[in-house]
Amino acid sequence: MKKECGTCGGTGKVLVECSKCSGTGQVNGKDCKKCYTQGQVVEKCGACNGTGDGDEEE
Fold it and tell me: Is 28 helix (H, G, I), strand (E, B) or coil?
């Protein structure tokens, strides 16, 4: 039975620290254009490879 991935909550995506601004949200005193949020970018979840399914068997 498939389960929801606990790392991303079943969305297949996670917020990670932006590599361009190192999580500060700013580059040279201006808002970082890469992350749009406070120093985070949305990336494919590594725990489920973006599927949203957990592979834990219980």
Answer: coil
Distance (Å, rounded) from C-alpha 27 to C-alpha 23? 10
At 54 the three-state DSSP class reads strand
The set of residues, in sequence order, having a beta carbon less than 8 Å from that of 26 and lying 6+ positions away, is 32
Other Cβ atoms closer than 10 A to 21: 21
- Determine the pLDDT at residue 58: 47
Is 17's pLDDT higher than 50? Answer: yes
CB 43 within 8 A of CB 8: no
Distance, CA of 29 to chain centre? 24
pTM (predicted TM-score)? 0.68
State percent of the chain over pLDDT 90: 79
